[in-house]
């Protein structure tokens, strides 16, 4: 078993299944074709197109193995049940540093800050889990600075 538990929401699981399907059914064929074409260029010992295609194939196969491992080991959490405390799967509206922000708390395997998905293991996620609407919690950032977070609402 993994050292730390892998948690995925239903949406995160579906995203990984979609990516896996793409990699196994479309990307493999594309890369295979690139390798075939590159071999036709002649001597593969000095063939950069061949080397690039083989490197891409190795990275793709590594990602396929990683996705399969995540899906096999992950605990899938259903959409957060309506309750009085914040949990994984909730979308939380907060006030941080004078600005309103909205996050969805997800497992580490599907976090994407640019998309507003934060991990339950990051400092902000840890501070929010188990909290209630109206509370103010403190998050300790990697630089040691404390950030006050006021919870406006969550769903």
Structure commentary:
The protein has 155 residues and is an alpha/beta fold. Helices cover 40% and strands 24% of the residues. It contains three helices and seven strands. It has helices at residues 10-39, 48-73, 123-128; strands at residues 7-9, 75-77, 91-96, 99-106, 117-119, 136-140, 146-154. The strands form two sheets. A five-stranded mixed beta sheet has the order 5-4-3-7-6. Strand 6 (136-140) and strand 7 (146-154) form a beta hairpin. The model has no long low-confidence stretch (mean pLDDT 88).
Summarize it.
With 155 residues, the chain is an alpha/beta fold.
Layout of helices and strands, plus pairs?
Elements: E1 7-9, H1 10-39, H2 48-73, E2 75-77, E3 91-96, E4 99-106, E5 117-119, H3 123-128, E6 136-140, E7 146-154
Parallel strand pairs: 1-2, 4-5
Antiparallel strand pairs: 3-4, 3-7, 6-7
Give the strand order, joined by hyphens, for the main sheet.
5-4-3-7-6
Which class of secondary structure composition applies to the elements?
alpha/beta
> What is the straight-line distance between the termini?
32 Å
- Quaternary state of this entry equals single chain
* Helix content estimate: 40-55%
Contiguous low-pLDDT stretches (5 residues minimum) are none
Mean residue pLDDT: 88
Helical segment tally? 3
SSE topology string: EHHEEEEHEE
How is the biggest beta sheet arranged? 5 strands, mixed
**Radius of gyration, rounded?**
21 Å
Supply database-style keywords.
single chain, 155 residues, alpha/beta, 5-stranded mixed β-sheet, two-stranded parallel sheet, 7 strands, 40% helix, Tscrpt_elong_fac_GreA/B_N
